[in-house]
Structure to design on (421 residues):
C-alpha cells in the first residue's frame, strides 16, 4: 500500500503566492479558472465545425450568446491574448480561437512575447528564451 | 502474469503530428527531431508490446472546464482522434484494453488512488503524437493502448511525488493481472516550454538534461521537485514533466537507459525522448 508518512504539508497560501513572483507568466490558478470559466467554454465551443462557421460569420453575435464580461468580449475581438490570460483565459482553450483564425501555436504565442513572429521564431531557432533573469521578479535584470 | 518491460518518455508537441501527417518529417527543420526517434521505431518492432499505458494530458479536447479529473483512466474499447479545431488527425482509432484497464482502475482505487473512470472520449495530440513518433505511418496501431490522462492545466496539478507513487501503484496493478502481457508505460509531454505571456519561448536545456539524467539509475530525487521549480525553470507548460514521473515510478527502483534524444526547438518547445528499461 502507499505510504504517506513522509508527505510534506504544503501551505496553500505560500504555494499560490509564489506563482505571482514569476515575471511575464499567468499560472492558471483556481481564481483564474473561475474568472475565465465562460471565456474558456466559449473557446471550447469552437471545437465543433458548425460553431466555427457561425463564429466566422458573425463574431459579435456569437459572443453575445455567452455570459462574458465586456472586457473579455473586447479582448476576444481584438485577439489580445495577454489580456485574455489576465481575464482568466487558458492557452489550450484560447488555442481554439487562434486555430480557427488559421494561426499556429508559434504565431499566436509570439503575439504575447512583444516580438514579431520572425523575431520570435529566430529566438526559438537560436535555443529559446534563457531563464536567466526571468525566474523571479526579484532577479537582477 | 502481465509485466512492465520498458518505459518511454516523449514530448507530444502537436506540430510533430502535422509534420508527420504532411510528410515534412525529414526536412531541415523536422529531420533532426524525427531522426532521434528512428532508433525507437526499430526497437519497438522487436519489443512488440501488447499494451501501452499512455500517460498524457488532454488539451481542452475531451475535457472542458466542466469536469477536471486529476487522474483519469480510459476503460473503453476504442477511442477516436479528436477534432482539435482543424479536423481530426488521419490516424487509426486507438484500441483500448478494457480488461487490463478495468483491472487497473479497481486495483488503483483499492491502493488508495481514486481514479476517474472514462468509458468514452476522443484522444488528442497528447496521445496520438507519441504513437506516431514511436510507430510511424501504420494502418493500425500495433498494440492496445490504455489512456491515462492527468490534469496539468488547472492548478494545482498532482505533485511529482504523487505521480511517482501512482507509477508504483500501476506496477503493482499490472503485476496482479493474470494474463501474460508485455506492457510498456509511456510518459509524455514537456520538456521546457512556455506558451503564454511575455516570458513565452522559455527553454532551459541545462535543467532538461539534468531531468533526463535523473530519470536514469536508482535516484528518486526527481519526485521531490516542487511545482514552482518547474514553473520558474522550465516555463509554465514544463509542468507536463510530472507525467514522466508516473512512467519512472512504474519501472521500479533502478532504470537503465536504452536510448536518449534531446533537441531544441520544435515550435515553442524542447523535445526530449528516453527509452528506459527496469534494471535488476
Amino acid at each position: 500500500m502507499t505510504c504517506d508518512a513522509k508527505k510534506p504539508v504544503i501551505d496553500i497560501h505560500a504555494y499560490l503566492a509564489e506563482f505571482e513572483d514569476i515575471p511575464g507568466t499567468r499560472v492558471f490558478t483556481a481564481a483564474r479558472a473561475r474568472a475565465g470559466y465562460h471565456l474558456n467554454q466559449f473557446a471550447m465551443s469552437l471545437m465543433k465545425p458548425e460553431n466555427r462557421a457561425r463564429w466566422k460569420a458573425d463574431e459579435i453575435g456569437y459572443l453575445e450568446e455567452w455570459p462574458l464580461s465586456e472586457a473579455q468580449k473586447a479582448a476576444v475581438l481584438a485577439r489580445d491574448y495577454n489580456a485574455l490570460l489576465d481575464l482568466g483565459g487558458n492557452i489550450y482553450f484560447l488555442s481554439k480561437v487562434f486555430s480557427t483564425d488559421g494561426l499556429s501555436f508559434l504565431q499566436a504565442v509570439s503575439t504575447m512575447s512583444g516580438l514579431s513572429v520572425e523575431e520570435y521564431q529566430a529566438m526559438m531557432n537560436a535555443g529559446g528564451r534563457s531563464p536567466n533573469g526571468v525566474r523571479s521578479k526579484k532577479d537582477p535584470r | 502474469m502481465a509485466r512492465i518491460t520498458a518505459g518511454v518518455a516523449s514530448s507530444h508537441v502537436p506540430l510533430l503530428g502535422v509534420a508527420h501527417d504532411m510528410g515534412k518529417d525529414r526536412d531541415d527543420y523536422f529531420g533532426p527531431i524525427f531522426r532521434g526517434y528512428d532508433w525507437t521505431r526499430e526497437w519497438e518492432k522487436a519489443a512488440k508490446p501488447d499494451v501501452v499505458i499512455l500517460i498524457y494530458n488532454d488539451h481542452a479536447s475531451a475535457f472542458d472546464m466542466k469536469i477536471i479529473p486529476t487522474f483519469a483512466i480510459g476503460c473503453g474499447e476504442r477511442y477516436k482522434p479528436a477534432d482539435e479545431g482543424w479536423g481530426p488527425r488521419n490516424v487509426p482509432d486507438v484500441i483500448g484494453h478494457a480488461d487490463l484497464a478495468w483491472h487497473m482502475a479497481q486495483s488503483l482505487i483499492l491502493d488508495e488512488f481514486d481514479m476517474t473512470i472514462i468509458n468514452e472520449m476522443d484522444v488528442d495530440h497528447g496521445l496520438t503524437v507519441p504513437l506516431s513518433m514511436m510507430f510511424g505511418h501504420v494502418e493500425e496501431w500495433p498494440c492496445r493502448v490504455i489512456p491515462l490522462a492527468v490534469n496539468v492545466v488547472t492548478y494545482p496539478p498532482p505533485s511529482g511525488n504523487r505521480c511517482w507513487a501512482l507509477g508504483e501503484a500501476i506496477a503493482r496493478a499490472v503485476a496482479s493481472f493474470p494474463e501474460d502481457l508485455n506492457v510498456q508505460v509511456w510518459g509524455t509531454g514537456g520538456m521546457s516550454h512556455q506558451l503564454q505571456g511575455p516570458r513565452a519561448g522559455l527553454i532551459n536545456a541545462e535543467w532538461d538534461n539534468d531531468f533526463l539524467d535523473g530519470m536514469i539509475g536508482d535516484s528518486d530525487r526527481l519526485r521531490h521537485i516542487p511545482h514552482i521549480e518547474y514553473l520558474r525553470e522550465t516555463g509554465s507548460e514544463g509542468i507536463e514533466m510530472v507525467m514522466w514521473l508516473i512512467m519512472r515510478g512504474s519501472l521500479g527502483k533502478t532504470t537503465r537507459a536504452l536510448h536518449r534524444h534531446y533537441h531544441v526547438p520544435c515550435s515553442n518547445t524542447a523535445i526530449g525522448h528516453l527509452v528506459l528499461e527496469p534494471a535488476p
